[in-house]
Amino acid sequence: MEQYDVMPSLQLLLTIPQVAKALNLGRTKVYELIEKENLPVQRFGRAIRVSQEDLVLWLKERQAKDVGGT
């Protein structure tokens, strides 16, 4: 029987401290980005996670807005 590894197909979810470290920001600033700048998150009860893919897309959109002058 052939086995399949499902882990590579799953999106990597980051914790707030991991996002803060990746962006070289503090946790408070990350929470501010979530509330005021619409950083997309996944909520699991009280736990908040950020998809690595969503984070990259959000950063690209922010960069496009900055370049576009909006």
From TrEMBL:
Pfam families linked to this entry: HTH_17
Species for this entry: Ktedonobacter racemifer DSM 44963
Classification via SUPFAM superfamilies: Putative DNA-binding domain
Domain of life: Bacteria
Coiled-coil boundaries: none
Annotated GO MF terms: DNA binding
Protein name per its UniProtKB record: Phage transcriptional regulator, AlpA
Entry-linked InterPro entries: DNA-bd_dom_put_sf (IPR009061), HTH_17 (IPR041657), SinI_DNA-bd (IPR010093)
All residue ranges annotated as the Helix-turn-helix domain in the record: 13-62
